[in-house]
Fold this protein.
Amino acid sequence: MKKDKMTRDRFLAIAQASRLEFSEEEMEAFEKSFSEMTDVLDKIAHLDFDEIEDRLYINKGDNHLRDSEVRGELSQEEALSNTGSAKYGYFKMMKFVD
């Protein structure tokens, strides 16, 4: 399946829709960089991975992680003792979403 090349007109349309402005030099550098990236991705897309065995881990050895062990719990009071601010018995955090 052949994919369409990214043209200057497409770059400009995307830039306009995104409200971005590029100088001529920036546009040429971006086109060159994008072209190089897509060439690499095309090469990767055409590689044959059928003979390669799937791996979950890179190294063949066992994982040498420590065993999980249950330790004592903190009371709510102990957990909140080092916080800068608490509210209603919980950590008070700044609002991220309106």
Q: What stands out?
A: The chain has a mean pLDDT of 83. The chain is about 40% helix and 5% strand.
